[in-house]
Write a structure and sequence with these properties.
11 helices, globular, mainly alpha, single chain
Length: 281
């Protein structure tokens, strides 16, 4: 219960930062749109060229499909990391007492495009390896790939803040992120889990209420109300997803500052952050 209390307190502190600079929501929104556009630009031509049919032909995976898949992973990861870096950079400016704009965040990310691309290449390679494990080892492979994927996500949690704040390469950033995780929090990602839990519960509540209203409206023949309800519920879930992404970026920036400098940024309780970084006994 103490861990959940600290997690909720940290989530509220991150929310206070987001309230003071709502422009931070622009970055996850643009990232989501860009990811959809990138997916469409890769998937539609692949269907036209028959890459998926050839990959399922039973004669092994053709190299054209492997190259397409790596390029897809690389581009998707680059887009996500780029806008995440813009978000983290702007959040760091806000934590330092500044007043960042969307342009400031994009400028910071643009100045780090090469290490971000390198990190995207590393993540794409890991993604390809995990996919190969899933396909070749069946059910056990899926379990192993899931466990490795979780470990990779935890170990690289501070990679983007490191790339933004320091002049380091992607490999060094990944290694240092894993080192910070091992040295400080271990497996206790309290803040990130708390943010996910809070927004997840809110999403569930929105979907539950929206579903009930839609069923009642459909039963009464109120089609206009049902459509409006579904649209509003969808927009609410999208908004919560954007808030979660923004809060996660703010929290990662604050945790990085505390892990490397030992100071609690403005709006964050130093005691809570120390407990969030407490070593697992």
């Amino acid at each position: 219960m103490g861990r959940f209390a600290r997690s909720w307190a940290l989530a509220k502190a991150s929310l206070d930062v987001l309230k003071s600079d709502k422009e931070l929501l622009v970055f996850p929104l643009v990232s989501a749109v860009a990811v959809v556009l990138v997916a469409a630009s890769f998937v539609l031509p692949a269907f036209g060229l028959g890459l998926f049919q050839r990959a399922d032909g039973g004669d092994g995976v053709p190299m054209a499909f492997v190259a397409w898949l790596f390029a897809f992973y690389l581009t998707q990861y680059f887009v996500m990391f780029f806008f995440n870096a813009a978000l983290v950079g702007a959040a760091m400016m806000r934590l330092d007492g500044g007043d960042p704009t969307v342009r400031d965040g994009l400028r910071i990310a643009a100045g780090k495009w090469l290490p971000i691309l390198g990190y995207a290449a590393i993540a794409a390679t890991v993604g390809m390896l995990l996919r190969a494990i899933e396909q070749r080892a069946g059910f056990i492979g899926r379990i192993v790939a899931s466990m490795v994927g979780v470990a990779w996500t935890l170990a690289t949690f501070l990679t983007v803040p490191l790339l933004v704040a320091r002049d380091v390469g992607p490999l060094d950033a990944v290694r240092e992120s894993a080192s910070l995780l091992k040295r400080t929090w271990g497996e206790n990602l309290i803040g990130k889990g708390g943010i996910g839990l809070a927004t997840g519960l809110l999403m569930f509540a929105v979907l539950a209420v929206g579903g009930v209203v839609a069923v009642v409206a459909a039963g009464q023949g109120w089609m206009a109300l049902m459509v409006a309800d579904l649209v509003l519920a969808g927009l609410a879930v999208l908004g919560l997803a954007l808030v979660q992404a923004a809060l996660s970026g703010i929290y990662s920036a604050a945790l990085y500052r505390y892990a490397t400098e030992g100071n609690a940024p403005a709006g964050f309780d130093g005691v809570l952050l120390r407990e969030a970084f407490q070593r697992k006994m």
